[in-house]
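Here is one chain, start to finish.
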Amino acid sequence: MIGIFRNPMSNLLFTNTVKAGRLLRMLGWVILAFTLGVGSAFGIALAIPVFTALDASMQSSLANALLRPMVPVAWILAVAACFGIAFLIVGAYIKKYKPWAKVSWVLLALMSLIYVPIGMMIGCFVLFYLAKGWKERPTVTGL
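Its structure:
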């Protein structure tokens, strides 16, 4: 039986805790990719009018007019990137069965439900694996 969560290095299937850690890390990468994509799109959309302006005084006035409304968007993207990094870090430590990571796991899984539709699906799976694997212990060292 070859499944998506099969460990190629052994004949054992991944535990529920390892599955949840992998799902959280996957969601972290999706969030970071989305944040980078949206940030790049906004940056390019703002850079084109500024750099195609005819003279230097026009460039500075365009830059000021275009960049001021973007400050809240930049903060939102920065917060989203921090969440993505938090998902990556907690997912890595969950796979190592760290006790503090399970509490963080619950909070991040609940927060991932706001990222509709992908985050909601992954968050539901993570919460499912959390419920099943809350008292699991590592079966193989070196995970």
